[in-house]
Amino acid sequence: MDQRYRIATEDWIEFEEEQHQVTGITGTQVRLRSASGHHQTIMLSVLLTDPTFRTVAEPPPGQEEGAQGLDPGGVLALLPKDVRDKALELEAHLHEATTGFRSGDPLTAIAGEPRDEYRPELPLSVRVESKAAELELTTRRIWQLLEEWKEKGLWALVDRRKARLKNPLRNIDERVIIAIREQAAVERWDSSSSVSTRFRRRTQNRLDADYGPGEVLLPKEDTFRRVVKLLLDRRPSDPAYQRVSDANQPDRTFGNVIAHRPGQVVMLDTTPLDVLAWDPAMNDTYNVELTLALDVATRSLLAWRLTPTGTKAIDIGLLLADVMAPEPMRPDWSDALRYSMLRVPYQRHLTLDERLAEAAARPVIYPETLLFDHGKPYKSDVVRRACASWKIDIQDARKLKPTDKPHVERLFGTIREQFSMHVAGYKSFNVAHRGQNVEEEACWTLDEIAEFFAEYAVAVYQRKSHSGLHLYGFPDLSVSPNEAYAMALGSAGYVDCPRDPSLYYELLPIAEDGRAINAYGVELNHLVYNADVLYQFRKAKSPYNNGRWPIRYDPRNLLHAYFHNPRDGKWYTLRWTHALSDLQPFTDITLREAKRLLAERGIDPSDQAEVAKALWDLQNRTDAPEKWTKADRKRHTRDRHRADSQAKDEARSTPAVPAPLPQPALESRKPTVPGLHAVPSLPDEDDIDLDAIQPAQVWNPRASQES
Q: Is the pLDDT score of 291 beyond 90?
């Protein structure tokens, strides 16, 4: 009768007088790897009919499954305790057979050692025979154990049946494993799906395309799910944001950003804040973005800005100004939060920067290098000009590689845990974790949230010990960012930050290629701006290279533009000539929307009068505000908050010379209905002169007819 064999991957066989391990079975072919490391592929029928073929019960020495390619000591340390104890017990028996003492050392002998049958003066063969009788093993087996023990140590005494490492993918075709990995890589950006339906179907389609229809079949559904779970860290059924986040990890060792002094590396980033802001005027909620600057050396939160969704380049540029400016104290803050409590030479710093007298306990640092990602606001000309002006180096992180700036990414998680989730209106970072009534719970405006965050940054974050900061020489002692800053000043010193009263205007973007000053003013974004100061420069060539004048503007408020007068060195405000008297400030986004509406109606978007009417229509709907669309309320809130932010930033610099309102605008501001006036206080009753009271005139219709 023919003998039957069962061969599986990782089995050991003997073939052509050498032992081989089966590394794979493909159809009718078998891949073999010899004990010496040589590989070959042979037909299964040829292998089974070869007279030298036979199965091997145990692998050759040094090739045991579970030890091959692994650290034997590491494998032994991770074995179950009972298996290790049995091996140690057997080792003690072999020590006693060879030395007479179970520890192997006469100096550590226990009571009663050596026993009579294991006295050291007896021949080794006698002691081995005694140990074989005690353990109920043959003498030959004891000699084999002694030989393997001397060669491999304790690992040779482990029960191989208990120490065998299990391979759950042992009987899975290698082509199936490759197809699963490749299909998972293709779907890492897709929406989540079921493993047993779409992913299984697509994987089978991939196998059919690569090897032919029906050539390689997937295992049963339960087995397929088990294999996918073993092979993939993130399965197709996991949330998509988790798979996308893992896919962004670099396929190499993570780098380390190291900084030894304050300001050496400052990381910038923007992320949605996990809190909804409430707009009392619209009785609506909206999303908020948080932009912040983090000093790597001290982990200090240097500056932050909260804006409606859609951070502008000017916000990033002014954030750099915030880094080099002290954070002002709030009236209701404790004196423990003052800059003087930083344990730094405060009086010496005060002689350099008098603003520190009313500053909060937040470091003021002159950044040397900025590290940020490829976001559009960060790549703008505003940021690059600001860095060039202050001699700050720029280092770009790789696109979609948050691991290039892990410190600031981790900071966002800390802010979520310590601040955001404790604020009414917390919406979490993902809709899968969002509550049901988040919009109803939101009750804080953007300005109030900004004040709460400022208090959190100064009173909590800067004073709380940080696990990533340690005192040199004391690795077990954690310090806070403020303490790390005070220590760093002792070794690196203090650098005075530049101050410029015209800083705000110098950070504003410049109209491309400059502008000519015409008789009617200057044109910017198809809008005409004018002021009295332009009269003396109209149709004149500028002293700049191209003969045109640089006109700056703030995209958060296009009602105004700004002109620098080279004669007196002052900044002047230019006003849009067609601005209505009650037109609120508007952003560049609102202007684009107004022009889009005009184009849809077949009206020329460059017609300023029509643009003004379109802006009026966008900003003041004829219906009640509570019935505005979501887009209208969002735009209104965004423009108002950005205009407020622009006004605050402008107020921190030397105010520009304002532009007087044109006469038509002044006349339009006159009330058409007499206003209500407060009733003056009547004199005391004793002082009333009744004779001095004039009677009111009475209208007589007859008198009017006679006349």
A: yes
